[in-house]
Each structure stands twice: as C-alpha cells, then as structure tokens.
Specification:
Blueprint lengths: L2 E6 L3 H13 L3 E7 L3 H10 L5 E2 L3 H6 L5 E4 L6 H10 L4 E3 L7 H14 L4 E3 L7 H11 L6 E9 L11 H18 L3 E7 L15 E7 L4 E7 L7 E8 L3 E3 L7 E4 L2 E4 L5 H4 L1 H17 L7 H20 L3 E2 L25
Helix pairs in contact: 1-9, 4-5, 5-10, 7-10
NADP nicotinamide-adenine-dinucleotide phosphate (NAP) binds next to helix 1.
C-alpha cells in the first residue's frame, strides 16, 4: 500500500522531507502540497518534478480526500492549528518540532488526540533515530557503565540567522537535547538553571551566547548542556554519560582520517542537515511504516508536551537567573511507557 501524503510548508525542512518521501523512502508518495507562499510551493513542485496537487491552504489540504496523512513543516506558530485540524479529520500527522509554541498548545493537542482515542501524532524529534544515540542508549540499557550519574553535552552551531534570540537557544536548539536526553536516560526533568559565561564577541547583540543549561532529573542525574551557536568551527553535537562504572560517549560522525602535511585530521561537519540526514530518513520511514501496520510508535504529542514544559522552565531560568522547578504530570496510559512496545523503532536498541 502506498500512503498518500500532503505536505504543509515548503521551506527548508519541508523541501527536504518532500525529497526523502519521494526519492529515498518506501511506501509513500507526496500527493498534495501547500505553503503560505503558493509561488514557493509551486516552485518546489516543479523543481522536484512532483505530480502533487497544489492546495490554497493547509486546511483545504487536510480536508482533501486525496490526502491520507499530513506532514507539517510550516513555521512553528502555525503547527498547532494544523495538527488539531488533522486530528479532527482523523488523519495521522507528522509535525516538525515544535508541536506547538506553548505548553498549553501542546496540551490542547494531547487532549484532542486522547479524545479521538488513537494515536495520530508523531513529533519530528529525530535524535532518537540517530544511529549514534541508539548505540549510546543500548550501552546504557545494558548497564555496562552502571547507573548514570551525570551527562555532559554540547550543542554547537557555527553561526545562526540574524533573528535568532537568546530564548531560541532553548526553544529551537536545546529542545533536541531536552527530548533525546529524557529518552536516553528514561527519566524526566525536575529543575532547570541557565548560566551565562563570558559572551562571545561573534554573537550579534543582544544575543547571549554561549549558555550553559543545567538540568536535574527525577532520578537525580545532573546534566550540563553547553549551547554555543556562534562557535564558528562547525556543527558539533557532543554527549557523554558518566555512570557508576564507566563513561559512554556519543560516537563522532564517521569521517575519513587524513594524514597529510605533517598533520592527522578529520573534517568536522558544518551543517545540521548533514549531521542527522540518516536520522531524518529513519524517523519518517518509521512514520510511514507504522501507519501501514496500524499504530504510531515514535515521539508522541506527550513527548512534545513534556519538551515544551521543560523548555518553558529553561526560558524562565534564563530570565530570572534562578533554579526553576519543573513539575511534569504523570504520563497517561494512552501514551504508554515508551519501553513497553517491542516493535517500537524509537526505543529499539540496535
Ligand atoms: P522555513 O524555511 O522558514 O519554512 C517554513 C515554510 O512555511 C515557509 O515557506 C513559510 O512561508 C511557510 N509558512 C509559514 N506560515 C505558514 C502557514 N500558516 N501555512 C503554511 N505555510 C506557512 O523554516 P524551516 O527551517 O523549514 O522550519 C520549519 C519548521 O521545521 C520549524 O518549526 C522548525 O523548527 C522545524 N525544523 C525542525 C528541524 C529538526 O531538526 N527537526 C530542522 C529544521 C526545521 P514564508 O517563508 O513565506 O513565511
């Protein structure tokens, strides 16, 4: 069976997902496309030689009988209305992060999905699909380094757009660590603090860069994440888990080791798209495959909600220079504990 997908938003990640759905993945085709800028959507249809129909807006696309599932890649503030409309139409929806721009918005989606009675929403958190993070999780789950005590992580970008703000270091950047570290440790956050070291002269005013985010989990693990978005030298994701009996590090992306001109060197990636290109393929393939077998198993609306609550606390911590407690409600049984499912590609340790 081929799944007919409609894509809302044909910007950077929208074009990338359309390309992978049509050229790389199996079991789906893009039959409908829209964007607030219809000329842009038409250009993408032409450039990618799609046979997809153009729709005047996201709501018309969701309502179309041609569309069986929806991919939302428009800008963040529009996600909630499209996800709610897809749920109301009973259609599965893959929504890029953020699920909604507020925790209340995520909660509205959770409530609508639970009222519908079946999971329809997958959030575009791709890190748990990255081979390196999965190897790291397999080591943690095998207890080879004993109980995790601390995590040292870094999220570094060479540079960011002129409109990037101090809060976006949390909502756009750290949000991936918030999701993946909770998954990795099978834990949740109980407090957040943000510390600002000396400001880099490379950052545009008034951006505070770098930042160190300190998170504490319910099991007592202490996490520090350096977010440094003007580091210049590359796109660099680091994660080291310190356990009672050893240390496990996220593997570096594979790269040729070069010996030349009296130097041993390996290249560092500059673009986030290259770093997680395979993970994006696996997460979207999982969405398509899960729908073929009947049940979504990837990052859920609940995971989107937990990330939003945690991100809110981190932004508050930035503004108040204080340790902000995080109180997360218990996971409803509707969003069964993620380890429960044997077939779950999101949690499978391979
Ligand atoms: P982008 O290049 O700005 O693309 C967004 C597109 O959506 C633009 O073409 C925009 O049109 C359009 N749009 C805006 N409002 C819309 C609406 N109400 N209905 C339909 N289309 C609308 O941004 P992007 O980098 O692709 O990011 C899109 C989303 O994906 C963001 O939420 C971002 O956080 C997320 N993202 C996730 C990852 C990840 O690693 N998982 C990576 C990149 C992006 P205009 O330009 O005319 O406004």
């Amino acid at each position: 069976m081929t799944l007919n997908i409609g894509v809302i938003g044909t910007g950077a990640i929208g074009q990338d997902h359309i390309r992978r759905l049509t050229q790389t993945l199996r079991g789906s085709r893009v039959v409908a496309v829209t964007d607030i800028n219809l000329e842009q959507a038409a250009k993408v249809v032409a450039e990618q030689r799609l046979t997809a129909e153009l729709y005047p807006d996201g709501h018309a696309l969701i309502a179309s009988s041609q569309v069986q599932a929806v991919v939302v890649t428009s800008w963040g503030p529009s996600h909630e209305e499209y996800v709610l409309a897809a749920i109301a139409a009973g259609k599965p929806v893959f929504c890029e992060k953020p699920l909604a721009v507020s925790a209340q918005g995520c909660q509205r989606i959770v409530e609508a999905e639970m009222a519908h009675g079946r999971r329809l929403v997958q959030v575009g958190f791709m890190r748990p699909y990255d081979a390196g993070y999965r190897q790291l999780k397999a080591i943690l789950d095998s207890h080879r380094i004993g109980t995790p005590l601390m995590v040292h992580a870094a999220h570094r970008n060479p540079t960011v757009a002129a409109n990037y703000t101090t809060a976006m270091a949390i909502t756009d950047t750290l949000i991936h660590e918030i999701n993946v570290l909770a998954w990795l440790l099978d834990d949740q956050y109980v407090s957040a603090q943000v510390v600002f070291p000396r400001r880099t002269s490379q950052a545009r005013e008034p951006l505070r860069d770098p930042q160190i985010v300190l998170l504490e989990t319910a099991k007592g693990v202490r996490i520090d994440v350096e977010v440094f978005v003007n580091c210049r030298y590359g796109y660099d994701i680091q994660c080291e888990v310190v356990g009672e009996e050893g240390i496990a590090r996220l593997p570096e992306p594979s790269a040729v080791q070069l010996r030349s001109e009296a130097r041993r060197s390996t290249e560092i990636l500059m673009d986030w798209k290259d770093r997680f290109i395979a993970a994006y393929d696996v997460e979207l393939q999982a969405f398509v495959d899960d729908l073929a077998t009947g049940a979504l198993s990837g990052p859920s609306a609940w995971d989107g909600y937990l990330a939003a609550v945690t991100a809110d606390a981190c932004v508050q911590a930035q503004q108040q220079a204080a340790v902000i407690p995080i109180s997360l409600p218990e996971r409803p049984s509707f969003y069964a504990p993620i380890q429960a499912s044997k077939k779950n590609i999101y949690t499978k340790n391979d």
